[in-house]
C-alpha cells in the first residue's frame, strides 16, 4: 500500500505537487479574504449607508446582499489569480501567452466590476438624497431631477469601468462633454439673474450698507427695509411690500433716507 | 357598569366630527373608515390623514390643545361653527385615554391658531421663539428666574418704533432663531434689558431695544409689569407678535394686536 503511494508520488513531477499546494492554499486564502472583507465592510457601517438603494433591494430580492456580492467578487478574483499562479508553477507551456494576457487583464476586470457596483450604489444613494431634499417642493415634475442625477452617476460609472477594461470610450466621453456643456449653458442662462442677485446679496449681507428698519428709496419706491436675504430685499410701505432683487440694488443704487 | 357605557354613548351621540389628537397609526386605522369629519391633530401628519391640523407645540394643557385643534379646523373649514365634535386625546400619556365632547363655535376662538399660522412671521419662527422662551423659563439664567421680551415679525416697523439702549450685540451678524447655538446666546443676552427684535424669516435683528409704542387702548390684564405692557402695546402699533417671559411668575405669554392670546407654563413642557 505504502509502496503504491510512493510510486504515485514519484510518478507525478514535484512541480505538479507544488502547483496543487499553491492551488489549495490560494483557495483557502481567498475564502478567508472574502470573509474578512465582508466583516470589514459591515464594521464600516456600509449596510446602513446603502440601505434603501435600488441595488441593495435588488440584491436582497435575489436572496443576497451588496456586501456579500462584493466579498464574493474578491474571493473569485483571488481564486482566479491562484489558478493562474498554479498553472504557471506547473509550467503548462502551451498556454503561456494566453495566460499572461489574462493575468494582466484580471485585476482590471475586477476593478471595473467594483467601480460599476460602487457607481450603481452611489447613483441610487444620490437619487434618494436628492429626492429627500426636494420632498418639500410639491411639484409632480420634480421627480425627474433625482432620476436624472441617478443616471448621470450611472453613466459616469460605466464610462470609468469601460475605460478600465480598455474599451474605447471616446464617443461616450464626447457625449458626456456635450451633456455637461448643455447643462452648464442652460443653467447659467436660466440662473443668470439669480446668480447676479446672489453675488450682490453676498456683499449686502457682509457689509450691510442698509439694514432692517432703515428708510430707503430705490427708484420710485421708498419704504422701510423689512428683510434682506441672499436674493431679494423686501421694502415695505404702509400698504405695499416691494420685493426687489438685489441685482437692482446694485444697478440702480439705493438711497437711505434720514428724516 | 352599563350606566357608564350608556354615558359614553350619550357623549358621542350625534357628533358631527371626530378629532384624533396625535393618534398612533394603528389607532388611526380603526377610524379610517369614518368618512366625514375625521380630523387628525398632531405635530406631524405621520398617519397620512386627509384632514389634518398641525400642532406647532405639544400643548400640555388639554384645553389649549383642543382649542388649538378646533380653531385650526374651523379656520380651514374642516368643521362648521356650531358643529359638535368628539375628541380622542391623551391626557396623561401618548396613548388616547380621554374622550371629550365639545361644540365648535366662535366662543372657542381665542386667536391661538391665528397666532401661529396667520402672523407675519413664519409659523416655524414663532414656534422656535416659543421654544426658546419656554426653555429660558424652565432653566432661568444660572438658576435664578429671568424675564425676556421677543418681538417677532414686522421688524422694520418695530425698529422704527424703538430705540437702542446700548450697542446692538447682533449688529452685522446673521443669527437666526432655531440655529443650535442661538439658545445659549439668547440665554446669555437675556441678562440685558430691553427687547429682542426678530424678523419675519427668523433673523435676530437686535437686542437691547427700548420699545416706544403708544400704550393707549392696550387691553392686557392688570398686574402685569412694564415688560408685558411694552410687548402688548408694540403688537397693537405694528403687525408683530410679542412673546414675553415673565420674571415674576415664570409664565410665557403671547400678544398679538394688543391682546393677550396665549399663556403657557414652561414647567409643563
UniProtKB/TrEMBL annotation, chain A:
Q: What is the topology of this protein in the membrane according to its UniProt annotation?
A: Multi-pass membrane protein
Coiled-coil residues are none
Q: Which residues cross the membrane?
A: 16-36, 67-90, 102-122, 142-163, 169-191
Report the SUPFAM superfamilies cross-referenced here. Answer: Mechanosensitive channel protein MscS (YggB), transmembrane region, Sm-like ribonucleoproteins
The record's annotation in InterPro entries points to: LSM_dom_sf, MSC_TM_helix, MscS_archaea/bacteria_type, MscS_beta-dom_sf, MscS_channel_2nd, MscS_channel_TM-2
Quote the Gene3D superfamilies the UniProt record gives: 1.10.287.1260, 2.30.30.60
Boundaries of every Mechanosensitive ion channel MscS domain copy: 194-254
* Recorded superkingdom: Archaea
List the molecular function annotations (GO) for this entry: mechanosensitive monoatomic ion channel activity
Its main localization is membrane
Which keywords describe this protein according to UniProt? Membrane, Transmembrane, Transmembrane helix
Gene Ontology cellular-component terms listed = membrane
Cellular localisation: Membrane
Family of this protein: Belongs to the MscS (TC 1.A.23) family.
**Stated name of the protein:** Mechanosensitive ion channel protein MscS
What is the native source organism of this protein? Haloprofundus marisrubri
UniProtKB/TrEMBL annotation, chain B:
Class of the enzyme per the UniProt entry, highest EC level? transferase
Residue span, DAC domain: 109-266
| Range of residues in the leader sequence | none
Catalysed reactions, as listed in the record: 2 ATP = 3',3'-c-di-AMP + 2 diphosphate
Query: What cofactor(s) does the depicted protein rely on?
Result: Mn(2+)
Which keywords, in A-to-Z order, does the entry hold? Answer: ATP-binding, Manganese, Nucleotide-binding, Nucleotidyltransferase, Transferase
List all membrane-crossing ranges: none
Q: What does this protein do?
A: Diadenylate cyclase that catalyzes the condensation of 2 ATP molecules into cyclic di-AMP (c-di-AMP). c-di-AMP is a second messenger for intracellular signal transduction involved in the control of important regulatory processes such as osmoregulation.
State what protein this is by name.
Answer: Diadenylate cyclase
Origin organism of this chain? Haloprofundus marisrubri
Provide the organism lineage as a comma list.
Answer: Archaea, Methanobacteriati, Methanobacteriota, Stenosarchaea group, Halobacteria
Amino acid at each position: 500500500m505504502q509502496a503504491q503511494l510512493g510510486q504515485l508520488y514519484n510518478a507525478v513531477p514535484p512541480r505538479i505537487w507544488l502547483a496543487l499546494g499553491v492551488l489549495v492554499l490560494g483557495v483557502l486564502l481567498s475564502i478567508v479574504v472574502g470573509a474578512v472583507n465582508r466583516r470589514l465592510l459591515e464594521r464600516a457601517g456600509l449596510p446602513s449607508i446603502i440601505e434603501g438603494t435600488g441595488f441593495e433591494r435588488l440584491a436582497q430580492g435575489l436572496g443576497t446582499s451588496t456586501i456579500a456580492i462584493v466579498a464574493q467578487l474578491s474571493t473569485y478574483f483571488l481564486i482566479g489569480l491562484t489558478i493562474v499562479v498554479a498553472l504557471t508553477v506547473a509550467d503548462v507551456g502551451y498556454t503561456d501567452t494566453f495566460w499572461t494576457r489574462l493575468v494582466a487583464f484580471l485585476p482590471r476586470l475586477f476593478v471595473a466590476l467594483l467601480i460599476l457596483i460602487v457607481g450603481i450604489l452611489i447613483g441610487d444613494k444620490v437619487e434618494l438624497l436628492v429626492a429627500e431634499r426636494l420632498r418639500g417642493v410639491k411639484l409632480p415634475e420634480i421627480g425627474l431631477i433625482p432620476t436624472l442625477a441617478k443616471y448621470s452617476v450611472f453613466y459616469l460609472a460605466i464610462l470609468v469601468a469601460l475605460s478600465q477594461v480598455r474599451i474605447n470610450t471616446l464617443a461616450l466621453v464626447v457625449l458626456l462633454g456635450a451633456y455637461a456643456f448643455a447643462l452648464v449653458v442652460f443653467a447659467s442662462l436660466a440662473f443668470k439673474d439669480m446668480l447676479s442677485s446672489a453675488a450682490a446679496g453676498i456683499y449686502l449681507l457682509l457689509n450691510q450698507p442698509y439694514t432692517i428698519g432703515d428708510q430707503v428709496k430705490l427708484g420710485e419706491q421708498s419704504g422701510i427695509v423689512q428683510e434682506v436675504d441672499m436674493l431679494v430685499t423686501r421694502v415695505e410701505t404702509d400698504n405695499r411690500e416691494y420685493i426687489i432683487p438685489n441685482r437692482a440694488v446694485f444697478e440702480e443704487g439705493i438711497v437711505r433716507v434720514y428724516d | 357598569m352599563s350606566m357608564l357605557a350608556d354615558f359614553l354613548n350619550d357623549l358621542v351621540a350625534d357628533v358631527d366630527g371626530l378629532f384624533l389628537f396625535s393618534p398612533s397609526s394603528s389607532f388611526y386605522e380603526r377610524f379610517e373608515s369614518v368618512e366625514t369629519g375625521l380630523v387628525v391633530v398632531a405635530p406631524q401628519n405621520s398617519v397620512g390623514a386627509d384632514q389634518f391640523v398641525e400642532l406647532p407645540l405639544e400643548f400640555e394643557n388639554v384645553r389649549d390643545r383642543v382649542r388649538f385643534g378646533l380653531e385650526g379646523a374651523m379656520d380651514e373649514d374642516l368643521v362648521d361653527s356650531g358643529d359638535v365634535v368628539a375628541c380622542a386625546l391623551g391626557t396623561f400619556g401618548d396613548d388616547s385615554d380621554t374622550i371629550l365632547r365639545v361644540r365648535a363655535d366662535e366662543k372657542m376662538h381665542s386667536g391661538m391658531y391665528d397666532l401661529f399660522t396667520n402672523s407675519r412671521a413664519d409659523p416655524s419662527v414663532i414656534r422656535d421663539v416659543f421654544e426658546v422662551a419656554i426653555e429660558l423659563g424652565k432653566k432661568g439664567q444660572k438658576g435664578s428666574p429671568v424675564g425676556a421680551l421677543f418681538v417677532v415679525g414686522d421688524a422694520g416697523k418695530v425698529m422704527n418704533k424703538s430705540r437702542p439702549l446700548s450697542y446692538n450685540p447682533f449688529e452685522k451678524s446673521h443669527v437666526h432663531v432655531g440655529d443650535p447655538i442661538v439658545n445659549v446666546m439668547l440665554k446669555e443676552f437675556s441678562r440685558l434689558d430691553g427687547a429682542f427684535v426678530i424678523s419675519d424669516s427668523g433673523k435676530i435683528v437686535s437686542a437691547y431695544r427700548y420699545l416706544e409704542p403708544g400704550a393707549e387702548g392696550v387691553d392686557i390684564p392688570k398686574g402685569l409689569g412694564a415688560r408685558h405692557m411694552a410687548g402688548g402695546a408694540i403688537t397693537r402699533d405694528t403687525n408683530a407678535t410679542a412673546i414675553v417671559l415673565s420674571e415674576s411668575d415664570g409664565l410665557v405669554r403671547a400678544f398679538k394686536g394688543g391682546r393677550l392670546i396665549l399663556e403657557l407654563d414652561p414647567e409643563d413642557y
